[in-house]
Amino acid sequence: MPTPLPLPARVSLVTLGVADLARATSFYRALGWPLVENAGDGVSFVRTGGALLSLFPYRDLAHDAGVPADGEGFRHVALAINVESAQAVDRGLAAAVAAGATPVKPGQQTFWGGYSGYFADPDGHLWEVAHNPFWPLDAAGLPVIPES
Question: Could you tell me the pLDDT band of residue 23, with boundaries at 50, 70 and 90?
Answer without folding.
Answer: very high
